Amino acid sequence: ARVVLATRNQGKIRELRRILAEADEKIELVGLEEFPEIGEVAETGLTFAENALLKAHAVASASGLPAVADDSGLCVDALNGMPGVFSARWSGSHGDDAANLRLLLAQVSDVPDGRRAAHFACAAAAALPSGAERVVEGVLPGAVIHSSRGTNGFGYDPIFVPDGETRTTAELSAAEKDAISHRGRAFRALVPVLHELLGA
Ligand code: ITT
């Protein structure tokens, strides 16, 4: 089945192509570059699920094809769950991973070890041009550290250590991250749900 991947985030695109190819070789992902007329979708939702559904619906109705979307972020307990849905625009400039990470590090610099719990969250949404929809979520619990380590992944990966790990998600291999990540969990759960939606 041809399904549009409704994201412009290159880090997500790399991971989602891997995760979905591994989970189901029959899903043929079409990139948004095939639909240059589709513009930015305003992420006005207050939750990951709302924003993922907004993006999936906008792209499904504009493309006429089924679409899947990812809304995700880092929720830091000591910051009352922030940056959360604002993760991509935390520093004010959308998608500036380096600036977002720098600001977050400064904001948690006084938080003692033991109070640095955080989690990555991902909502995976699927929508059809008819308006039918499904959404599932995945999380990865862990903690934020004091300075960056590692060069794999994207976004806040260099400052996040999953529970039970000593390495940051930027120090894990691609396969190691996919096996435990919020995105891996959400999109592996989405696959059977997407098939059910496409068959309905
Ligand atoms: P699209 O809306 O086009 O998908 P976006 O970058 O705007 O792209 P989001 O609003 O979902 O997407 O923001 C997600 C942000 O959360 C992303 O920019 C990262 O900073 C952070 N993030 C999400 N998953 C991550 C991961 O696996 N590792 C590190 N940071 C992650």
From TrEMBL:
<dbReference type="Pfam" id="PF01725">
    <property type="entry name" value="Ham1p_like"/>
</dbReference>
<dbReference type="GO" id="GO:0000166">
    <property type="term" value="F:nucleotide binding"/>
</dbReference>
<keyword id="KW-0460">Magnesium</keyword>
<dbReference type="GO" id="GO:0009146">
    <property type="term" value="P:purine nucleoside triphosphate catabolic process"/>
</dbReference>
<dbReference type="GO" id="GO:0005829">
    <property type="term" value="C:cytosol"/>
</dbReference>
<dbReference type="InterPro" id="IPR029001">
    <property type="entry name" value="ITPase-like_fam"/>
</dbReference>
<dbReference type="GO" id="GO:0009117">
    <property type="term" value="P:nucleotide metabolic process"/>
</dbReference>
<keyword id="KW-0546">Nucleotide metabolism</keyword>
<keyword id="KW-0547">Nucleotide-binding</keyword>
<keyword id="KW-0378">Hydrolase</keyword>
<dbReference type="InterPro" id="IPR002637">
    <property type="entry name" value="RdgB/HAM1"/>
</dbReference>
<dbReference type="GO" id="GO:0046872">
    <property type="term" value="F:metal ion binding"/>
</dbReference>
<dbReference type="GO" id="GO:0017111">
    <property type="term" value="F:ribonucleoside triphosphate phosphatase activity"/>
</dbReference>
<comment type="function">
    <text>Pyrophosphatase that catalyzes the hydrolysis of nucleoside triphosphates to their monophosphate derivatives, with a high preference for the non-canonical purine nucleotides XTP (xanthosine triphosphate), dITP (deoxyinosine triphosphate) and ITP. Seems to function as a house-cleaning enzyme that removes non-canonical purine nucleotides from the nucleotide pool, thus preventing their incorporation into DNA/RNA and avoiding chromosomal lesions.</text>
</comment>
<feature type="active site" description="Proton acceptor">
    <location>
        <position position="71"/>
    </location>
</feature>
<feature type="binding site">
    <location>
        <begin position="7"/>
        <end position="12"/>
    </location>
    <ligand>
        <name>substrate</name>
    </ligand>
</feature>
<dbReference type="GO" id="GO:0036222">
    <property type="term" value="F:XTP diphosphatase activity"/>
</dbReference>
<dbReference type="InterPro" id="IPR020922">
    <property type="entry name" value="dITP/XTP_pyrophosphatase"/>
</dbReference>
<feature type="binding site">
    <location>
        <begin position="154"/>
        <end position="157"/>
    </location>
    <ligand>
        <name>substrate</name>
    </ligand>
</feature>
<comment type="subunit">
    <text>Homodimer.</text>
</comment>
<feature type="binding site">
    <location>
        <position position="71"/>
    </location>
    <ligand>
        <name>Mg(2+)</name>
    </ligand>
</feature>
<dbReference type="GO" id="GO:0035870">
    <property type="term" value="F:dITP diphosphatase activity"/>
</dbReference>
<comment type="similarity">
    <text>Belongs to the HAM1 NTPase family.</text>
</comment>
<keyword id="KW-0479">Metal-binding</keyword>
<protein>
    <recommendedName>
        <fullName>dITP/XTP pyrophosphatase</fullName>
        <ecNumber>3.6.1.66</ecNumber>
    </recommendedName>
</protein>
<dbReference type="GO" id="GO:0036220">
    <property type="term" value="F:ITP diphosphatase activity"/>
</dbReference>
<feature type="binding site">
    <location>
        <begin position="182"/>
        <end position="183"/>
    </location>
    <ligand>
        <name>substrate</name>
    </ligand>
</feature>
<feature type="binding site">
    <location>
        <position position="72"/>
    </location>
    <ligand>
        <name>substrate</name>
    </ligand>
</feature>
<feature type="binding site">
    <location>
        <position position="177"/>
    </location>
    <ligand>
        <name>substrate</name>
    </ligand>
</feature>
